[in-house]
Write a structure and sequence with these properties.
- Helices cover 41% and strands 17% of the residues.
- The protein has eleven helices and 13 strands.
- It has a domain of 211 residues: 3-Layer(aba) Sandwich (Rossmann fold).
- With 337 residues, the protein is α/β, with parallel strands linked by helices.
- The structure holds UDP-4-deoxy-4-formamido-beta-L-arabinopyranose.
- UDP-4-deoxy-4-formamido-beta-L-arabinopyranose (WQD) binds next to helix 7 and strand 8.
Length: 337
Amino acid sequence: MNILITGGAGFIGSHTYVVLKENGFNPIIVDNFSNSTIHVIQNLETICQSPVVYYQLDVNDPKTYNQVFKEHKIDGVIHFAASKAVGESVENPLKYYKNNVASTILLLEKMQEHNIKNLVFSSSCTVYGQPAELPVTEKSPVQVAISPYGNTKQMCEEIIADTTQASNDLKAISLRYFNPIGAHKSALIGELPLGPPANLIPFLTQSVAGLRGPLQVFGTDYPTLDGSAVRDYIHVCDLAEAHVKALQHLIDQKDTASYYDFFNIGTGDGTSVLQIIHAFEKTTGEKVNYELKPRRSGDITAVYAAIGKSKDVLGWQSKRSLEESLKDAWAWQKALL
Ligand code: WQD
């Protein structure tokens, strides 16, 4: 089966490409390389030992889909392509509404035009805001977004749900990611932030590699066990495997009419920033220099996933430990040096 991966040269997209190949699918990448490099394609060819079919095109351009859908019979789409920097979305909301929401509407229109029935959408636990109860289940209410980035994820979920509802054969799943970290065992692909990393793990590994100053720990006065904020850090390969499980689940719904659902994709464990630092030092033997700083605006105290629904419905759960994720993140950083 031919699977279109928009944003397939990105962090999660590239790891999902590998798992799709391993499971006998034929993935095709569309990426404008605004947040990636062509080396990812070369490294995917090394990992998979086969040529990568990719298009360096923009998901906001209708001609992109006209060309891809003319050249390939596509059986399903995994839609990763989006801007994802929370802070940038506050400064430049229109870029986010155009790149994240308008591109999803265009994709849905083109899927309808070409009778493509299966869609997996890259969503985020950010839709929950600060949940009232933890672990957060899919029944927890979606809260008013605290950033345009988060709002685009909520809007896209709703647009996909409504479009599925109105169609008689579209099948779609939104995957609500928690915090993806780590890298492929080969250390040939991994998280590649262009510019100073906003996310914790790439900043931490760049700091330990001597490429940045000390890690700034944003906030130690949260009501958590050690005062630093808590998140659910999931290995990117576990997350990639969840996409293939979700796609398979959609394909298995072939006899049903339209179908829409959404799932938490996390480990179910919450880990604080200070615990991450200590776990990284223990796992790698490296020293993390860090400074305690005030909270970062827009951050929540704690979030981690209830994972029963993904396990029961998709037959998926995370397999890799936090230590393995941190070890793989460090191996990837060292390979970049
Ligand atoms: C994690 C924790 C920070 C950097 C965001 C998006 C989410 C997804 C992942 C795209 C927080 C602390 C961080 C640093 C720190 N984005 N931190 N020093 O904010 O949980 O999630 O990125 O897919 O949708 O909301 O991730 O890695 O930025 O922060 O102390 O230099 O680490 O305050 O508590 P976050 P993060």
